[in-house]
Amino acid sequence: MKRFIKSVCISTVICMIISIIPFNARCKNISDEVFRLHILANSDSKSDQALKLKIRDRVLKYTSQMYQNADNKRAAEKLTDINLQSIANIAKDEIVKNGYNYSVKAEIKHMYFDTRYYDKVTMPSGFYNALRITIGKGEGHNWWCVMYPSMCVGSSADYNSLKENTNSDEYNLLTEDKYEFKFKTVEYFEKICSFFS
Q1: How far does the chain reach from its first CA to its final CA, in angstroms?
Q2: What is the pTM of this model?
Q3: Helix (H) and strand (E) counts for the chain?
């Protein structure tokens, strides 16, 4: 009986792994099409968190104009890379305007994100390229969104941008509730894989 239970458990694990690998590949395709924004506040004080959001608004206003001619993630990344100093200057200007003297760093990083739920959209866990802005010590709660295609504010136009810049399979994957369990499984799978790599 113990041998039978052991066999069933092993078979179940193998079946789960086999079924999650194709789903994980679909999630990887999403990370190849999406460019994210990640802002770290100086601290968790109310004033530092408020400052983080003001910087977010200024940066998003600037980049939304910048991305008007970007027709894919690579173009958006290239424009961001060319304008990194301008983005840092905008953030610094907002810091000074609010009476602080924090340093600011803007960089493009390849970084890991857990599964994130954004209104009607679920972004799968995995490694994504992101514009990362660190304010001062960068010890406060972060703020993130999808910069390209634009989903940083919750309007229907943003979902249209997502739909226009992903294929129908990817769009369904991001917007349908039925994948929630699989997203969590992929997240654990990704963490196990990154532990061994």
Answers
A1: 37
A2: 0.69
A3: 7, 6
